[in-house]
């Protein structure tokens, strides 16, 4: 159970880093481009289905927020994870 809690905590951290990187324009040749591409490839499979179901609100994509809180609920209520990220 601790492994699952840890993996979900790491995934939350990855989501936050992706969100922060999305605020900055990254050119394809920049030093952070490979990191952004990697983060995109591991988070987009979870975010894309949510985007198809949840429409943007005022032009703001809330799929990240929904996924973030869903993972938090799973960690706390279902798996009873303690400590860790956030």
Lay out the secondary structure.
Blueprint: H1 2-21, H2 33-53, H3 63-78
Helix pairs in contact: 1-2, 1-3, 2-3
Question: Helical content, roughly?
Answer: 55-70%
Shape: globular
Question: What structural class do the secondary elements suggest?
Answer: mainly alpha
Oligomeric composition of the shown chains: single chain
Query: Beta fraction of the residues?
Result: under 5%
Elements, N to C (H/E): HHH
Mean pLDDT: 91
* Number of separate helices: 3
Major sheet description: none
Radius of gyration: 14 Å
Query: Low-confidence segments, ≥5 residues, pLDDT <50?
Result: none
The rounded distance between the terminal residues' Cα atoms is: 18 Å
The count of β-strands is 0
TL;DR?
The protein is mainly α. The chain is 66% helix and 0% strand. The protein is built from 3 helices and no strands.
Structure characterization notes:
This protein has 86 residues and is an all-alpha fold. The chain has three helices and no strands. The protein has helices at residues 2-21, 33-53, 63-78.
